[in-house]
Amino acid sequence: MLSERDYQELLDRMQALRSQVSERLSGSLVSNPALAEEINRQLDDLVQAARDADAAGPTPPDRGLAELVGVGPEAARKFGDVKIPQGVAEYDENVNSERVVAVGDLYYIYQHDRIGVFRVVQKLKELFEGGAIRLSGGDGAYRLYQFDRRDVLRYTKNDRVAAYRRVLGYGRGLGAGQSRPNTDFHMLFSHFVNQVTLFWRDKRISDVIRERALDPSFGSIAVVRRAGLDLRNNLKFTSYGHLNVLRVEVMQLLEECFGILGSDDVKDLFGAANAWDVVDEVLIRYFDVRLQSSPRQRMAVNGRAVLRWLSGNHVMETGRGQFEALLMEIAEPAEEWLTSAQAMSLAKRTGTDRVMPWEQLGQAGVAARYSERSPAQLPPAARGGGPIYPRRNGLGTYRGGRGGVPVGPRR
Question: What is the pTM of this model?
Fold first, then answer.
C-alpha cells in the first residue's frame, strides 16, 4: 500500500507527463484527434497498472490505522508516511449477464403477448373443443390436444402478467409476489434508445455540418454510457426470482404456439400462407381488433437486441474507437425500435434532451402505468385530459375524479 506522499507524487508525475506529451505533440494532436485518445488511453493504462500493483502488495493488518493515529512502534512521524488505499471496486463494473438476457427475452415475450399470439391459440383450442372449426386428425389438431394437456404444468397467464408488471412495469396492479412494479423501465429504456440514435445521427453529420459545434455533448459516448448504466442498474434489482425459469418455459410455449399456427391443416383452415397470417386472421375474425403485429414484432426483436447488448460490459468501454465499434451492433436495432414505438405512440423521439432527471423518474408511475394501453382501454377518468384525483366516498374507500381541481371528500 502506497504512503500518502508516494500517492501524491504518483498523481503529480502523471499530470506532468500528460502536460509534457501534449506540449510536444500539440501540432499532431490538432490534425489527428485519434492520436490524443490513444495517448490518454496508454497513460490511463499506466496509472491502472500502478494501482493494481499497489493493491497486490502487502497490507498492514490494521490497514494503516496505527500509523495514522500514532499508536505503536510503527507510528508515522509525518503525515506523508501514512498508508492510503486508492479506492474500491467501481459500482458499474460487474453485471450478471444471464439476468439481463432474461429481461430481454421477457420483453420479447411481452410484445408477442400484446400482439395476441397466446390469445389466438387459446381461441383455436376453444373452437377445436367445441367442434366449431374443421380440424380433426391433422398435425395442428394433434398439437392443440397436446397444448391443452400440458396446460396444468405451465405458468398461468396471471403469472406472466405479474412478471411483466414486476420486471417491465407494464400492465396494472402489483408485480409477482405483491412486489413493487418497475415503473421506471419504459422511460429508461426509451431514453437509452434515444441516446444511441442521437449519437449515430451526430456521427453521420459530423463530417458535413456541425449544427451544435459548441455543444460538449455532441457525439458524446459519456451520455450514451450514462443512459445505458441507468437502465442496466434498474434491471439489476428487478431481475431476481423466478424470471429466469419463467422466460425459458414461456419461450418454449411461444415456439409451441407457432408450431400449431404453422401447421398445414390450420393454415388451410384460414387460407393463410404462414403462421403470422393465421394470427392476423383470427384476431380480425374473432376479436375485431386493429392489427399491430408488424410494429410490435419489430419492437420485440430489436428491443431484445438492445437489452442483450447491455448484458455485456460494452457500455463500460472508455476508448471512443472501441466504443463506437461495439455500439454499431445496436445502431440500426435502436433506430428501428424507436421508429416502431413512435408510430404506436409508445415513445417519442427527443431532440437535444440528453439527461433524464431523477425527479422525472420518480413520477414515472402515473405515466408508465398507461404507457402500453390505447386510449380505448383507459378508464373513463383517464380520458378526460385532466389529472386524476382520488375522492373519498362514505364507505371509507376512494373513487376516481378528474379535471383541473381536486375533488374533495364527500359530505
Answer: 0.75
